Inverse folding.
């Protein structure tokens, strides 16, 4: 089973939706900006997944300062249409912590979402900032992974909030029951990210926004050895095409067991998808 843990639907234009110029620029540099101009419905996106051999996408909502780019209800429409192919990852307004917790609970209780994602560079706030902490407590209570970005930013925003050390390390120390999934491999601090994931049982890495041919050798070694079961496949779709990414995964020097964990087994456990659940401390 192939699961992409970081993807998002392409939003159609409508009044009240905020633009994301930073994302547009990143996709232009990645050569995939044309996909942003051609919104796809659930069945069309599922068709592309079939062509590439992808079984499930974790689709993320996006809230930036000032409003929604992709709302939780936008994502829920995809999940309702094709629950066999999509699962939802919520977003919230970080600047309003009480309302953010309420929206998270709605996304889980009413919409059936399986995770929360907040991207630090979008808010220029590192993940150990006080505004995140009510959300972490809610995620622990709900049994929900907190998904975030680690590493430098492709968009023209400060990269400092994406450092794994000290920020994610401090969050994991403060919330040892919180499952953290850090996307984008932490580049150029990938060794820091590997160290944090090794140190903390509930910290994981996803490879979104990086084609497999560019995975650092130390990350592949980690996936194959002492970090097996700690790294998950992601693309940041539509930034990276699934067919190209999966063809490159096939060329990685991974054992069969490590490849199966990477492509879907770990995600099934961590996000409590059909077929597995992740063990949690204190439970």
């Amino acid at each position: 089973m192939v699961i992409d843990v970081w993807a998002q639907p392409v939003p159609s234009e409508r009044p009240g939706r905020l633009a994301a110029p930073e994302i547009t620029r990143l996709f232009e540099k990645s050569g995939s900006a044309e996909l942003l101009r051609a919104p796809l419905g659930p069945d069309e996106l599922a068709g592309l997944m079939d062509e590439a051999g992808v079984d499930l996408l974790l689709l993320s909502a996006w809230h930036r300062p000032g409003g929604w780019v992709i709302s939780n209800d936008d994502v829920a429409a995809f999940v309702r249409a094709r629950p066999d192919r999509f699962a939802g990852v919520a977003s919230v307004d970080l600047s309003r912590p009480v309302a953010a917790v309420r929206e998270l609970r709605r996304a889980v209780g009413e919409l059936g979402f399986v995770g929360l994602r907040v991207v630090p560079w979008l808010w220029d706030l590192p993940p150990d900032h006080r505004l995140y902490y009510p959300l972490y407590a809610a995620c622990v209570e709900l049994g929900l992974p907190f998904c975030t970005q680690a590493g430098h930013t492709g968009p023209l925003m400060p990269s400092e909030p994406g450092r794994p050390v000290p920020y994610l390390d401090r969050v994991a120390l403060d919330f040892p029951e919180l499952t953290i999934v850090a996307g984008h491999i932490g580049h150029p601090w990938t060794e820091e990210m590997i160290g944090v994931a090794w140190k903390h049982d509930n910290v994981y890495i996803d490879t979104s926004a990086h084609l497999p041919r560019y995975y650092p050798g130390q990350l592949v070694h980690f996936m194959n050895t002492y970090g097996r079961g700690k790294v998950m496949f992601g693309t940041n779709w539509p930034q990276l095409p699934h067919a190209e990414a999966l063809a490159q995964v096939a060329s990685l020097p991974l054992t069969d067991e490590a490849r199966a964990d990477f492509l879907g087994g770990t995600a099934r456990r961590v996000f409590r998808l059909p077929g597995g659940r992740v063990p949690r401390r204190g439970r």
